Amino acid sequence: xxxxxxxxxxxxxxxxxxxxxxxxxxxxxxxxxxxxxxxxxxxxxxxxxxxxxxxxxxxxxxxxxxxxxxxxxxxxxxxxxxxxxxxxxxxxxxxxxxxxxxxxxxxxxxxxxxxxxxxxxxxxxxxxxxxxxxxxxxxxxxxxxxxxxxxxxxxxxxxxxxxxxxxxxxxxxxxxxxxxxxxxxxxxxxxxxxxxxxxxxxxxxxxxxxxxxxxxxxxxxxxxxxxxxxxxxxxxxxxxxxxxxxxxxxx
Length: 251
Description:
Layout: E1 6-10, E2 16-20, E3 23-24, E4 26-31, E5 40-44, H1 58-61, E6 69-70, H2 71-81, E7 87-91, H3 101-110, E8 114-119, H4 124-132, E9 138-142, H5 150-154, H6 160-171, E10 176-183, H7 190-199, E11 205-210, H8 230-240, E12 246-250
Parallel strand pairs: 5-7, 7-8, 8-9, 9-10, 10-11, 11-12
Antiparallel strand pairs: 1-2, 3-6, 4-5
C-alpha cells in the first residue's frame, strides 16, 4: 500500500470506514530522553495547527521536510527492534491532526510496545478516545501560555475550550502524563507562570523547558532572543510548587 493510499478498517459495529496510511518525516532509532524511564524510538510527523515562532521543528511545522517514511517501513523497523525497545514516542508537528494516527497506534500496540504521544491538546475528542481505549501509555501536553495569550503565541486562533478540556482530561489520571512549557523570554514571564499554575492546578507533573535559540526555528527573529538564566527557571519552579505535585527544570 502506498503511504497516501485510502484503505478501510472495520468498526466494532461492522461498518467500514476509510483511513490513510501514516507518513513519517523523521525517525530517531533510540532515545533515553523522549519517553521518561523507557528505551524508545521517536517517530516524527509533519503538519501542525499552531505556528509558534520558537518551535524547533520548522521543517515539520511548515511541511518542508522531504524525507518520507511510510507506515509500513516504520512498523517493519519497530518489529525488527522490538526486543530492544520498550516504547514508541510519536511527536511532530502535531500528531493528532493526522487521520491515520489511531490505526497506526493500534498496530504499534500489537507489537507489544508502549506509546507516548506529544500533543498541543487541541484534539481532546481523539485524546479521550486513545486514553479510554488504552491506546496511549504516556501523554506529554504543551501548555503554551495563560489562555488569554494563546492566540498571540501560537499565531493562530486557538480553541481554548479544547485546550482546557485536554488539561482536565489528563488530570483525571487515567494515563501517565506531563504538562510542559517552553520558557521563552518576551513570551513567558513570572506572572504567566502563576496563571499557568492555576490552569493545571493539581497536576502530577510539570516540566519547565529551557528555550533554545541556536537551532533552526519557525521564526528566525527568535534566534536573537537569549534564554533566561537557569536561576529564573528555578524561580518559576518555586512558583509552581503550590500548584503541581512534581516539577522538573529541563535545561
